[in-house]
Amino acid sequence: MDQSAPQPAPQPARGCIEAVPAETALARARGNPLRRYPAPDRDGDRLYPLAAPSAVPSFTIGPEDTVFAIGSCFARNIERALSEAGLRVTSREFDLGPIGASLGQASNFFNKYTIHSVLNELRWALERDSFPGADVLCDLGRGRWADPQLGIARLEFPLEQVLEFRHRYLDAMAQVATADLLVVTLGYVESWYDRKLGLYLNLAPPVQAVKAEPGRYEFRVLGHDEVLDGLEQVHALLSRHRGRPPKMLVTVSPVPLLATFRETDVLVANAYSKAVQRAAVESFVARYDGVDYFPSYEFVTLSDPNVAWSRGDYRHVSPDLVDRIMAEVLARYMRRDAGAGGAPGPAAAASTPQALTATMRMLLKLGEVDELRALAEARRDMVDADADALLLEAAAARRQRDLEAAFAALERARALDPARPDALERLITICRPLRRRAAARRLRDQHEGAFPERAAFRARLDWI
C-alpha cells in the first residue's frame, strides 16, 4: 500500500456528538485540571458534602442584559435569583388582567414541564396565527374551563374573558424575542398528546375531558431524539424572530417526578426522564454556538441529600442550595476572567454574600465545621461584613470548643448589627463556659436596655 497517498478524513461514528484526533484528546486531557473524578484524598470537597461541578462559559452576561426564563418549576428559582442579583428578568414582567390577579401563584401556569410545552407557548406567542384559540381549552361544564397547556387552575369565567387572559399570557411570552439570554429548564419526558390538535400538552388532561372524548388524548414517553428535536425547534423559532441566534443557557431540573404513569418504579422512571434529557441537551449544546449547559442538576443530585432538599420531601430544592447554584452562574458568566481555571470547591460557589451564608448554613447542618471554618477564612472579607456569616462561624467554632474564636466572631456580629438580639444573647450565653460572669452581667444590663421586651431570656440567666 502506498503510504504517501492521501488518506480519507476520518468520519465520526453515527450518533457521536464529538470526534477529534487522538493528539487533540490527549492534549486536552493534559490541560484539564478537573479531568479526574474526585476522591477523598484528591478534590474530595468538590463532590462531598456539597457538589461543585464546574462550567466553561461560551458567552458572558452583562449587567445590562435582559433574561427570559422558561421551563419547569426550577425556572422560577432561577428567575428569583437572577432578579435579586440585579438583572432584569423579563419573564417576571407581565400583566395577566383580572383572571391572572385572581389566581395568584396557585395556578403554576408559568411552569412548563416538557420541551414541547415550552415550544408551544413560544410559537403561539411569536406566531399568533398558530394559536388554536378556544380549542386548547377543556369545557368542564357550569362555566368552568381548564387549559392543559397552563397550570392546574380551573378558570370560572366566561369564555371570552378566558381567551383574553390567554392572549395576555402570550403577550408575556412574546418578550422572549427581545431578551439577551434565554434560560430553558427541562423537566420531564412523560408527556400527554392531543391527537385532535396534533400537539403535546403541558399537563395531563382533566378526567372529564378524557371521558368526554375517548381516544383524543394519549400518554407518551419521549426519547432522546424527540427532546433534541424540540430544543432545535425552539432555537430555530427564536432565530427567525430575533434576527440573530439567541444566547441560551439550558438546565435540567433536579426536581424528580412526583409520580409516574408508567408500569415501573417511579425511581426508575425518574432516572430515565432525567438521563434522556441530559443526553439530549449534550447533543444540542454540541451543535450550536452561544448555547451552554449549566450543571444545576448535578449540583443538587450529587450533594448530600440532607441539605439538598427542603420541606423534608426529597423533591423541593433547598433555597440555600439554589443560592449557591446561582452564585456559581453569576461567577462564571458575569466575570470575564472566570472559566475552567476557577478554583473548584465550596469557595468557588460562595462568591456572593447570599451564597456564602447559604453554603455555611448547609455545612453547619451537615456537621462539616472544619470545612465551614476554612471557608470563612477563605472569604474573610465577606464574612467580616455579614452578621449572619459571623454567627455561623461562631456556631462552628463553639462546636469545636474553640470558645475564644466563637466569642470574637459574636462580638464582630453584634458590632455589625446591634439592633438584632441574637448576637448579644449568644455572647451572654457563651460567657458561662468561659467563666466570665462579670462580662455576662455587663452584657445582660446592655441587653435589658436595648431589648426590654425580651425579659424571658434574661430570666434564664440565674447562673450569673
From TrEMBL:
Coiled coil: none annotated. It holds the Pfam family GSCFA. This is GSCFA family protein. It comes from the Bacteria. SUPFAM superfamilies: TPR-like. Residues 67-327 form the GSCFA domain. Gene3D superfamilies: Tetratricopeptide repeat domain.
